Automatic annotation (TrEMBL):
It comes from Mucochytrium quahogii. Coiled coil: none annotated. GO terms for molecular function: acyltransferase activity, transferring groups other than amino-acyl groups. Keywords: Membrane, Transmembrane, Transmembrane helix. This is N-acetyltransferase domain-containing protein. It holds the Pfam family Acetyltransf_7. The keyword Transmembrane helix applies. SUPFAM superfamilies: Acyl-CoA N-acyltransferases (Nat). The keyword Transmembrane helix applies. Signal peptide: none annotated. Residues 79-219 form the N-acetyltransferase domain.
Length: 234
C-alpha cells in the first residue's frame, strides 16, 4: 500500500489509468486569490489557455513513461485522498476507497469502448492536484466522465471546473457537438449535484452503486445519472 509520503510527494509526474493515449494541454493560474470568484477570473489567459499548470490526457495511442500498475495505484490514492478529505463525506460515515492496486480503475475504464485519464499537473512542482476519468464510445457518440477528484488543499480553487471543461472539450472534439455527455454522481453528495446542475447537466435516471465497489456504508446508495448535450448549450 502506498504511504502518505508517497502520495504527498509521490503524486508527482504522470498519473494514468488502464487504456491510455491522446494528449491535451491547457495552462492554469495557481494564484493566491482569497476568493474563488477572483481566482476563476484569473484562470484563463487571453488565448484561452490555463496559466501555470497543464491538464494532460492519455488514451490508447500514447506510450507510457511509467509502469501501468504504478500509475493506477497513484491515481487510486489521489482519488482516495480527495474523497476522504471531504468533511461532509466523513461526518456521514462514507469512506469511499478504491483498491490501491488499481483494479477498480481498470474495471471502470472497461465499461466503455475506450477510456482516458485527465490530470491537472502544476508546472513548477510537477505535482498532481486533480484527476478525472473520461470514457467514450465512438460508435454511439456517448461520452462519460467520473471520479473527478481534487486534492483537499486545492479544492475550491477552480481546478474541478477546469477539469470539467477539459472533459467536455475533449469529448466534443472526439465525438462531435451532437454527442451526449453523461456522468454518474453519488446521491449522498448534494454539493456535487448542484455543481453539475449549474453547468447545464440534468438528471435522466438512476442506477445501483456498482457491486465491485460496494462497501457496507454504501448499502442502499444509488448513483444519479446526469447528462448534457453540448449542441443544446452552444
Amino acid at each position: 500500500m502506498l504511504s502518505k509520503d508517497t502520495i504527498g510527494a509521490g503524486a508527482f509526474g504522470l498519473v494514468v489509468s488502464a487504456q491510455i493515449g491522446y494528449l491535451l494541454y491547457l495552462g492554469r493560474k495557481h494564484g493566491k486569490a482569497s476568493r474563488k470568484a477572483r481566482f476563476e477570473k484569473e484562470l484563463l489567459r487571453e488565448d484561452g489557455r490555463l496559466r501555470d499548470g497543464e491538464i494532460v490526457g492519455f488514451g490508447a495511442t500514447r506510450v507510457l513513461r511509467r509502469d501501468d500498475d504504478w500509475e493506477c495505484r497513484v491515481a487510486s490514492e489521489v482519488a482516495n485522498l480527495a474523497f476522504v478529505g471531504e468533511a461532509d463525506f466523513k461526518r456521514a460515515g462514507h469512506l469511499f476507497r478504491l483498491d490501491v492496486e488499481g483494479r477498480d480503475l481498470q474495471r471502470m475504464s472497461g465499461m466503455y469502448s475506450m477510456s482516458t485519464i485527465l490530470v491537472f499537473q502544476v508546472y513548477e512542482t510537477k505535482e498532481i492536484a486533480g484527476v478525472v476519468r473520461v470514457d467514450f464510445d465512438l460508435d454511439k457518440r456517448i461520452g462519460q466522465f467520473g471520479m473527478l477528484s481534487t486534492r483537499e488543499q486545492d479544492q475550491g480553487r477552480g481546478i474541478g471546473s477546469a477539469l470539467v471543461r477539459a472533459c467536455e472539450e475533449y469529448l466534443v472534439r472526439l465525438l462531435g457537438p451532437d454527442c451526449v455527455i453523461r456522468m454518474p454522481v453519488l446521491e449522498i453528495r448534494p454539493h456535487l449535484l448542484k455543481f453539475y446542475e449549474k453547468r447545464g447537466y440534468k438528471q435522466y435516471g438512476a442506477k445501483p452503486f456498482p457491486e465491485f465497489l460496494m462497501k457496507p456504508e454504501f448499502y442502499g446508495t444509488q448513483l444519479l445519472l446526469y447528462e448534457k448535450r453540448p449542441s443544446s448549450t452552444c
